């Protein structure tokens, strides 16, 4: 009887499904329920208030900024990651002396627990002891950089030493870079895997056809790597959009709540301030969008693969 | 490779490596600094200086291991490392236990809807984790697991199992059906066939799952903070920010040491298995 | 400041003095000698009036990791152990980073299970529905020690529900800590905010700017509210209605914002927007800042830093006077909650009460960080407290004397002149006050716009908590 597919398949899948339903499904449904209530202070029940929490949040400019920041961090850091990973993976597959040590250095950010490595960044970008600023000053680049930031209208009125976590746009930049920094190694690995998955016949064929350099990159490598790149991006998006630690540790949402993201703002409102219902609503805001994006990307990835 | 190719390679990979590894290099320097050296703004941050802020060529005489000693002797750090390892190992075990059969079933037995399962599985990652710890904390309490590593061992598979299932499902699909059929014809049961034929071939995929699941466990901290309030029971990610940032004081040198110490062996491990990890991904995730 | 009597009188109509409290206090806690700080000097060993086993069980306490680590060690290894033995209770104390207290509290509420006594770093007004009122304990301690100080009462009492939702354990004043030599060199005074406004550029020119944070962290929260008081820009009135958007309060707030903008533009750098709670400590320790506001943690770190010159030059002072008054927030208000679902409420109550009755030892052991909410816990009240502070052995001698004055006269609760409500709690936890100041300082908004925006946000928060019946 165990051999029958109809019995065996559900039997094998059931433990995972039951487990996920219990540990993710139940709390998730509960969180959705809370977002429609006025629950406070950790209490898991409250009075039904309909969509009030959502509309309240929507009318708060701090919330909107958090929403915008979440999108900005996610998209900007993933753009950096994709370009960086495409370039780096292209070279890391080659054989060269010292490859082992380079690879070791590259995977370091991935091996470090994210809270802890972010604390390291906090120290690197410290308001007073920043080694980044020290180095810029000793390379005589600091004033030039301040001028440049003003000239491109990224951060006007900044001073030397640069306060990476004290000026809104600089802080956005710093957080984006830290996100990119921690996701990049993982993306590189996936990209290398993606390259490896290109059948050697394709390589050979393109070589015979005389496709080289940019042409080959554009017509052969990119399309073939697209599905795999999408997977890397998807992971990157999920890990960045849902991330709490980087912003919480680096800026706590400051200066003037200009770097809040949805997870930190939901936490500030729902946990620290005790408005649990509203916090739940804030944390759920992006869910539908993320679902749409992911489904589209996975669908597209598969289509790209098939064709 | 031609000389030019080699040069371009270095020109690209070296800056990347510096960017990615710099925080760790600087952590390495900082962890041996004396308090006075660290506090003096005028001092060069890259080297060790004496109490007056002067640099000497025998700079190692102006460094101190005091803060590393503090970390190991005056905090529960060794215990946190051990806890992290235990939780990671247990979670990896549970993950495989749940994901191997599920992945296999979805790849081989489920038929049409196994295709869509991949997408469904992924959606689990989109559930925002920030507030989930509240309802979960009730579950944990009812199971009487508060303040116990078992709480984390129970909860962490929630974010490792979906990925593992998804990856293994893809991996199993790449294994030719004929291999299995041959075994089945020989009279082996499906489970035996799975155990004897599929599992050995899938080792790269399994290894990928192991590494990925472990790294997710090491990274998690919200559950670790809230389900465990006893210092001895914490993991690295929760214990360090709690016990090494005291009120208004960051124990910077000890913090840096605490970051570096688990990172280096993990990075060595990841690097050693990187090729197989890549193979696991190639075989699995994209089918 | 006058001591309003209304609240305490209406607080608890019927007071039953249980066995618990009769047993508590004096006998077990024969006041220890100051000076003889060896553990044995503690008077725990006196004979118990009542038989053992009445409180038997476990008591689990959650508290922060105190910034004076030695205090935690004494608390865990000496005080708690001896109290446990004396009361036949197995006590376990957990310490966590103060930033995690709220999330851990929320998770215990969600689980309806957790510590019996839960300590918060600020009045946890948003949790009040989950805690048992402690009016009886307050009344009991008040009987023995005299009136509770205004700051503690305003912070833990809810006039709407007529309940003390939490039991005040300690508070820490928020003094100015400054470098005497820098002020002397520049001839800058810290007596009024106008002095600071005028003096800040000189100090900056000297290379030692004033350090007044406008960042998303606790020090900025506390200091900026204090600045609002000094300029008469109160967020709420005595009935806890939000008034900052109107009349004199609005004007005061606008003046405070302008002052801060000037101080920033002429006398500080961008760093004040990037600070964490530890940054002003670090910058002071680095010898950079000429002045900062914080609990005495800066001063204590300076003393331990090994930098004697810095330590000898560092002094304490009261917050500068504004056009309206001289008044500052407390920096920390330690409040115990006893959850409704706590398993060992009796032991939790007794622990809190006993600790308060013998608070002198805690005051001393915490190196004057923890002030007693009941000043009478230190026999002789502020007179003795001043004497103790004056006796601190660290150089420059006598620098702590002013701390007693600050605590006595210039320290109030968040939400002054009203109570510390859930509204204030949310305002702090969402950093709306630093946001208002920083936006003006960086020129993103005019002071008038910023006050209007702030007022609107706080009104919204007020409506939310009014609907909960808590304001």
Outline the structure in words:
The complex is a heterotrimer of chains A (307), B (287) and C (471). In chain A, 73% of the residues lie in helices and 0% in strands. Chain A is mainly α and 307 residues long. Chain A is flat and about 70 Å long. Chain B has a two-stranded antiparallel ribbon with strand order 1-2. In chain B, a hairpin with a 2-residue loop joins strand 1 and strand 2. In chain B, helix 3 crosses helix 14 and helix 4 runs antiparallel to helix 13. In chain B, 56% of the residues are buried. Chain C has 21 helices and 13 strands. In chain C, the strands form four sheets. Chain C has a five-stranded mixed sheet, sandwiched between helices. Chain C has a four-stranded mixed sheet with strand order 8-9-7-10. In chain C, helix 5 runs parallel beside helix 15, helix 9 packs across helix 10 and helix 12 packs across helix 13. At the A-B interface, helix 1, helix 3, helix 4, helix 5 and helix 8 of A face helix 1, helix 4, helix 5, helix 6 and helix 8 of B.
Mean pLDDT of chain B: 86
Count of DSSP helices of chain A? 14
> How many DSSP-defined strands of chain B?
2
Which of globular, elongated, flat, extended, rod-shaped describes the shape of chain A?
A: flat
Query: Span from first to last CA of chain A?
Result: 39 Å
| Residues in helices of chain A, as a percent range | over 70%
Content-based structural category of chain B: mainly alpha
Note poorly predicted spans of chain A.
none
| SS-based class of chain A | mainly alpha
Number of helices of chain B: 15
Our Rg estimate of chain B from Cα atoms comes to 24 Å
- Approximately what portion of the residues of chain A adopt beta-strand conformation? under 5%
Give Rg of chain A in angstroms: 23 Å
